[in-house]
Amino acid sequence: MTQDKRPLSSSSSSQTLPPEISHLAQTSSLGKMLTDYTLAPRKVTLRRVAGLILTFCLIIVGLMLLFLTTHDDLSFGDHLISSTILALLLCAAWIVILVREAWHGIYLLHVYICDHGFIYAQKHRSPKPFHWEKIQVWRSVTRYYRYKVYSGTSYAYTIRSQDGHQVKLANPLDVQRVGEIICNEVTKRLFPQAIQSYHAGQTLRFGPLSLSQQGIVHGFFTLAWTDVASITVQNGFIVIMSRQSRRFTWAKVAFSKIPNGFIFLALVDSLLKSDGKC
User: Fold this and answer.
1) What is the pTM of this model?
2) Transmembrane residues, as ranges (predicted)?
3) What residue segments make up the domains of the chain, in order of their start?
4) 247: which residues sit within 8 A by CB, 6+ positions away?
5) Are 190 and 263 in contact (CB under 8 A)?
6) Contact 262, 190 (CB under 8 A)
């Protein structure tokens, strides 16, 4: 993956940033511009090239077998030519998709990090401001294995503001670094508010899960804090175990379904440790 990170000082930001972005940062009260991230697609590796060649060969063999079984009147040369043409068309379509994604990543997408939020800028579209205190983030992490051997990890971040604007940072863009910055900044602002709301007796909702002074709520069921055995993240799922039935999972929810799931985990960790409930 490639990612261009250009720190902007207060003296040079006005010269480096597009006027539209500078104006939007000021009118949206986002504060000083800190960093401009240009998101780029993954680099073309030898493994990906080899995979493309292997796929091309397999397509030719498969199409030849198909033609041999369905067109007995054609010669071997005709089969080879027809199969090669079809394989080239399929590979050309694949290349068009890759080039389109690369163009999107290199030339169209910027994320400008500010003191109080960020600006999502995409070419030919109006840039959108997002404030740290007014957004929810859904984070998804997928690990890939080939023949039980780890081969890579992909990240996706869906960000939604209170006014309904939503953007998604995902592959083929290199989004992990900027995505984690967004998650950390949101946590710094919203975690103290969440703690105060909890101690004030309010119920905190995180999608299918809720937290209150009575315990954790999932659907129609509530697990009292004194009955919580553990809360962990396993293979992309939040797993909640009960003291009363340690052999069975009380609740299992995909982490990608939890808005601001990182705040949820920080909250339960803080509450369980401070009260000695777990």
Assistant:
1) 0.70
2) 49-68, 80-99
3) 201-275
4) none
5) yes
6) no
